[in-house]
Each structure stands twice: as C-alpha cells, then as structure tokens.
Design brief:
Chain lengths: 118, 114
C-alpha cells in the first residue's frame, strides 16, 4: 500500500519570504502522480500543483514550485514571496497513474499547517 | 462553472442516531468520491463511483455506512447508527473521468457525534 508522510506538523514564514514544505512517500509503482493541496479554514481542498512521476522536470505554478526526487521518493513544495493568503493546511497526496480496477483514490499525508507572519 | 456542492455544512447528532449527507458534483463529471477527514489527518477515501456504479468501497465501514449515486449524478452518504469516532469532515469530490483528471472538492460537511 502507498503511504505519504509529512514530517512537519507546523511551519511558519515571514511575509515575502520563502518556505519549503517536506513530503516523502512510499510506493512500488514506477508511474504515478503527486499533488500538493491547500486547505484553508473554509475546508475546501484546492489543488496547488501536480507532478507526473515520468517527468524529470520539476513542476512550477507561479510562486509555487516542487523539488521532485524520484529515487529518494521525496516531493517538497517551495512557496516563494509568501503572502498572508497562503496561510492554510497543506497536504501532499499520491495517486496511481494506472489502475486495473479503476480506483484512482488520492492518498494523503497528515498535512502541514502553514502560518504567515506579517 | 459551478463547483461541487454539499449539504449540510454542519451537523450535530447524538451517537446511535442516523445522518445523511448530500453531494452534487460538477455537471458532466462521471466520477464521484467521498472522503472522510478526521481532525488532524488527511482525507481518506470511503467510496468511489463511476457514473452510478461503485468502483472502490474497500474502506467503507459497510455495517454502518452506505452510499448511493442514483442516475449517476447526485450522491448521498448515510451513517446509521453513528458512533463517536465518526466525527469528521466528509468531503465530496468529482472528476470528469477517473484516470488522469483532476479531482475537484466540495466544501465538506462537518459532523459532530456527541
């Protein structure tokens, strides 16, 4: 079974600074997808960024970028120029690329609570 | 485009009572998911529907939880009877298909069992 581990329960960053959230995962698959989701107090999960395992190039999305190390099974999220609106829970998630049974469930870590200090 | 709708947003019940949650996915989305998110944890899949058929319900506690998706659109998740450990946020998500498509989440229902 796949597992996703986020070792930082809480992080804080000064506004306009950069912060990196860590995530490791375990899988025996060679092809899969990794995601970072943001969950503000409103509870709605919002996709921040996704990475296809077969792509060597790290994904970027405006101020958000990832450092994907496939051999190390590591997938960290870097937030540059942090803004007050970035404060939220951040979840790392894994999904298989192929499923014979058709099940494409997301497996989530426990999350990291990010605080942004003005 | 309207997002995934869920109701109610909050529900408080006593243990052994029953409760139902409703989800309306994004129009045209064939795949619907129910996740349970216990406080301090990430969401965990309870059940996945493809149209009105069940694809994966391996983590659904079938002795007390049931779900249906009539006509392949709206879905209802029911708990009967509820236990204290069922206190959680219940998230509904939908995607256009299953494999490569992004899952869009609703705002969730926060259930408190006393």
């Amino acid at each position: 079974a796949q597992t996703v581990t986020q070792s930082q329960p809480e992080m804080s960053v000064q506004e306009a600074e950069t912060v990196t959230l860590s995530c490791t995962y375990d899988t025996s698959e060679s092809d899969y997808y990794l995601f970072w989701y943001k969950q503000p107090p409103s509870r709605q999960m919002i996709l921040v960024i996704r990475q296809e395992a077969y792509k060597q190039q790290n994904a970027t999305e405006n101020r958000f970028s990832v450092n994907f190390q496939k051999a190390a099974k590591s997938f960290s999220l870097k937030i540059s120029d942090s803004q007050l609106g970035d404060a939220a829970m951040y979840f790392c998630a894994y999904r298989p690329a192929y499923s014979g049974a058709g099940s494409y469930q997301l497996t989530f870590g426990k999350g990291t609570k990010l605080s942004v200090i003005p | 485009e309207a997002g995934v709708a869920q109701s109610p947003r909050y529900k408080i019940i006593e243990k052994r009572q029953s409760v139902a949650f409703w989800c309306n996915p994004i129009s045209g989305h064939a795949t619907l998911y129910w996740y349970q998110q216990i406080l301090g944890q990430g969401p965990k899949l309870l059940i996945q529907f493809q149209n009105n058929g069940v694809v994966d319900d391996s983590q659904l506690p079938k002795d007390r939880f049931s779900a249906e998706r009539l006509k392949g659109v709206d879905s209802t998740l029911k708990i009967q009877p509820a236990k204290l450990e069922d206190s959680a946020v219940y998230l509904c998500a939908s995607s256009l298909g299953a494999g490569l498509d992004e899952q869009y989440f609703g705002p969730g229902t926060r259930l408190t069992v006393t």
